[in-house]
């Protein structure tokens, strides 16, 4: 398939700080492409430049052949943007918000009202369309935020961390809607720092860190890089301090890295099976009880760890 | 152009849905004006309850009709309750009365004042118009402001009459039939009419009516209402300027820039929104005070033009502030300070002439000063021609501020990371 978005040696500097350091990638028609990276990696800046909000310091990007530098208005006409922050007018109703933004995308008259009705149906807010946004829950606001980006039926949709700060139920609904939009033929550039989201949604993933694209490919291609890496996950009691056990596990032979997130300790190792017994012994020595264990296949988290030596949430 | 209006109307809708903004934009100036009305006895009709018998010293060194006409105004029946004039013969005596707090202001009519406006028997005018001196007593700011308004209204009538006479004379002269004798006769006739008109027939619009419709007295609210409306106008434009920064912070401005809408359209829409807000606010305040307090703001076309000009200049300040400050909180905080400072400098609280001359000059940078001058002139019976100066000043102020804001915004960029 032909690429509809091409990013070439893109650099964005803010004074002395370089937020994006010469990244290149392309997105093909009909795919979901995810930019995966921790907070501050340069994902939002990359989307801001590609969506013509900021001019690149050097390099260029083109959407359907239109350069963001030379023909930004043509680029804006082809893309839809769902920003990370809730860019809505809280004192207007959802209907008024959709009406305003639809007009900003050049829609008017019956075409606009028909499209608003469709989008309201799509985001499931038809009944509450005449309520002011400030009365909505976080999840409902997120849905309106997405709805605005869909109003003009863009060929390419940029979604910048659309699930940040919402409950699991709303998050699930958004992920399902992303898949549905893609099935309807929309190409999606999705940014996230949640490995699970990138893994579930993406046809291809670009891993970004400190403004650099450090890996790019399908999930199979990426996990192949860490083929001999397993993750052993130990679940401990919620009231236990995991740190003494993490330190003890770190010193075991075969453990490449040990991390604790809440009451879950992840061990990156070449062979998870061989580490089960030593891990149990280490837990007994530190007086921490293990409730359950599971072994996970190589995933994007492991890829990120492999490439950067840090966890995505570091 | 369509998008420009859509953005402006959206902003107008947003500001009128903000209860806090409505209180400061509309309710506060209404209540303060209403309060001033009660304090001054405007609503009770009891002059003893409010301002009355304002002492004023008038020194008439002019031997012509206009000096007499001005004295007649202050001695008129209509002003009998409001002012208590004395007529010392020398300026030093008037100054002494001021220093002893026995006069709220002194009005010195210099020699040759009438002849500088009305042609003498030989048909000649004595050169430049001689100015009347108005000396305010700093211990009686409100009283001095009222006296100044009365004087301004008189001078407006003189100016209107003078221009009318000049136009008529020049039209006669163009026929080629104006002999020196005829010019002298016409000058005499116009001069007499002017003095009569200024002193009697249209006595500085002292015709504010009561419910019964009878002509009564000088209306104090016509002094306070425009001052308050103009002061709180600065709040409206500050709010508008703040909204640009707020939209940047909440992400709606970057989102707008990601739609097929140019920066110029967005900025134009925001500025138009500020302007429409200002126009709407002033119109509601003026319309409301006309209906509720029965205020006569003067010639409707002049009022409309002044509303537009004052809103334009104030919007210029709002836009300029949005470029000057970095955060919405800064604009809100400094905006409140600027609103009060402009209110002080622009004469919304007391008469500008009480302040040192350089402060009065500084006040000219405010839309308040020019707006107030225009509105009080119109309320005093002034016509479109007599508010030319404030209209021009306000228009220039707006143009300069918008230009500065545009240049600054272009250099800085509309959206900021």
Q: What is the CATH first-level class name of the largest domain in chain A?
A: Alpha Beta
Overall 3D form of chain B: elongated
Q: Strands of the biggest beta sheet of chain A: in what spatial order?
A: 6-7-8-3-9-10
Order of helices and strands of chain B: HHEHEHEEHHHHHHHHHH
Question: Considering DSSP H and I runs of 4 or more, what fraction of the residues of chain B is helical?
Answer: 55-70%
* Largest beta-sheet characterization of chain B: 4 strands, mixed
Tally the structural domains of chain B: 2
The overall strand count of chain B is 4
Strand order of the largest sheet of chain B: 2-1-3-4
- The CATH architecture of the largest domain in chain A can be named as 3-Layer(aba) Sandwich
Low-confidence stretches of chain B: 199-217
- Give the class of chain A from helix and strand content and strand pairing: alpha/beta
Count of strand segments of chain A? 14
The DSSP helix count of chain A reads 11
Number of domains of chain A: 2
Extract low-pLDDT stretches of chain A. none
Give the radius of gyration of chain B.
24 Å
Largest sheet of chain A: 6 strands, mixed
For this structure, the CATH topology of the largest domain in chain A is Rossmann fold
Layout of secondary structure:
The complex is a heterodimer of chains A (314) and B (417).
Chain A: E1 3-14, E2 17-28, E3 32-36, H1 43-50, E4 58-63, E5 66-67, H2 72-78, E6 79-82, H3 94-104, H4 109-122, H5 138-150, E7 156-160, H6 168-183, E8 187-192, H7 195-201, E9 204-209, E10 212-217, H8 219-224, E11 230-236, H9 243-250, E12 255-261, E13 264-269, H10 272-286, E14 290-296, H11 300-308
Parallel strand pairs in A: 3-8, 3-9, 6-7, 7-8
Antiparallel strand pairs in A: 1-2, 1-4, 4-5, 9-10, 11-13, 11-14, 12-13
Helix pairs in contact in A: 3-4, 9-10
Chain B: H1 2-15, H2 19-39, E1 54-60, H3 65-75, E2 83-86, H4 91-99, E3 105-109, E4 133-136, H5 141-174, H6 180-201, H7 221-250, H8 252-257, H9 263-293, H10 300-324, H11 328-345, H12 357-362, H13 367-379, H14 388-412
Parallel strand pairs in B: 1-2, 1-3
Antiparallel strand pairs in B: 3-4
Helix pairs in contact in B: 1-9, 2-7, 2-9, 3-6, 5-6, 7-9, 7-10, 7-11, 7-13, 9-10, 10-13, 10-14, 13-14
